[in-house]
Design goal:
With 333 residues, this protein is of the alpha+beta class. 46% of the residues lie in helices and 19% in strands. The chain folds into two domains: 120 residues, no CATH class; 203 residues, Aminoglycoside 3'-phosphotransferase, Chain: A, domain 2, CATH 3.90.1200.10.
């Protein structure tokens, strides 16, 4: 019997229940196992929630025990139809990012419309986030290089599929983020105001940008390394936009990781620089002029996140991200 409601790891046992019809889920996996995957009848299905975004999507691990062994998949269930994610992943694989390639993504297996459920291959390996957080690991620089090489190849060769994101859309989000931070008053509001004003100026002078396929949330948590292979996961944010945004995302999330490791900022900045220089060596220096804008916008985004959820040391982290954003665009307020 499918056990899709209980979650043996996550402390929110109802997380998946609110997204998924357990009976229909069990039925469809049983049909796929016997008729399409040739795994035979299902004897047991277990699920483990990995990450949920309430009202949007939930990602979970599926372990199926059949008469022909145990099989692991990743499921991603959405609150609205996202069949496009399966199509995007298939297109990327066709462009040279198949599961057995040096630079790869997980194989999309199928999309079940009635459940709004994407099933994909489970990718194995250590996340680059884990590598970066290891104390003085010899693998950190290599991991940063591999992340840059993967992204450079993706930007150069992947098909332009997915929605198109523009500076206009980005600035709309930045204004909303700044408004929310302004409600905190004091230095939070002051710094958010200065940062938004500078972003407005930079956006007005951006000009025409050559866009390309973009991951959407390219960061150390979404890159796995296993042997010589580098695999990138989490494709529901894929779009077409300025390549500088993916580069900036990786760099700012790496800075974000440093905030949880006191005294690690210099080391993590060094890893970001290795990543950037490797990327520039592969694709040229065209993004450099626009990179401060995207880095600063992402700092504003992360500052808003800190303030909204008020997790551990949220005031310190909010101020740190605002300060980083201002420094990136040459301000010292």
């Amino acid at each position: 019997m499918a056990e899709s409601a209980p979650n043996i790891v996550d402390s929110r046992p109802s997380a998946l229940v609110s997204f998924l019809n357990a009976a229909e889920f069990e039925k469809q996996l049983g049909q796929l196992s016997s008729a399409e995957w040739n795994w035979g009848p299902v004897q047991e299905i277990q699920t483990r929630v990995l990450k949920c975004h309430p009202g949007k999507r939930c990602t979970f691990e599926i372990t199926m025990r059949t008469e022909r062994g145990s099989h692991e998949l990743i499921g991603k269930v959405f609150t609205e139809d996202r069949s496009d994610v399966h199509e995007i992943m298939a297109g990327i694989q066709e462009a040279g990012f198949r599961g057995d390639s040096q630079f790869a993504i997980p194989s999309p297996i199928t999309y079940l419309p009635s459940l709004r459920l994407l099933l994909e291959e489970k990718a194995y390996g250590m996340s680059v986030r884990e590598v970066f957080l290891e104390k003085e690991s010899d693998n950190q620089k290599e991991a940063a290089v591999r992340c840059a090489l993967w992204l450079a190849k993706f930007h150069s060769t992947a098909p332009r599929i997915g929605p198109v994101s523009s500076v206009t859309k980005l600035m709309s989000k930045s204004r909303s983020q700044a408004r929310k931070l302004s409600r905190l008053g004091g230095r939070f509001a002051e710094k958010a105001g200065y940062l938004l004003a500078k972003l407005e100026v930079l956006a007005s002078t951006m000009g025409i940008v050559e866009i390309c396929p973009a991951h959407g949330e390219y960061n150390p948590s979404h890159v796995l390394t296993q042997g010589d292979r580098t695999v990138v996961i989490d494709w529901d944010g894929c779009q077409v936009r300025d390549p500088a945004r993916d580069v900036a995302t990786f760099m700012i999330v790496t800075k974000w990781l440093a905030l949880d490791r006191r005294g690690a900022i210099v080391a993590f900045d060094s890893l970001s620089d290795v990543f950037l220089q490797t990327y520039l060596g592969e694709r040229g220096r065209d993004i450099l002029e626009r990179l401060p804008f995207h880095r600063a916008a992402l700092c504003l985004k992360h500052a808003k996140f800190c303030a909204a959820y008020q997790l551990d040391r949220w005031q310190e982290k909010t101020m740190a991200m605002l300060g980083e954003g201002l420094s990136t665009v040459g301000l010292t307020h």
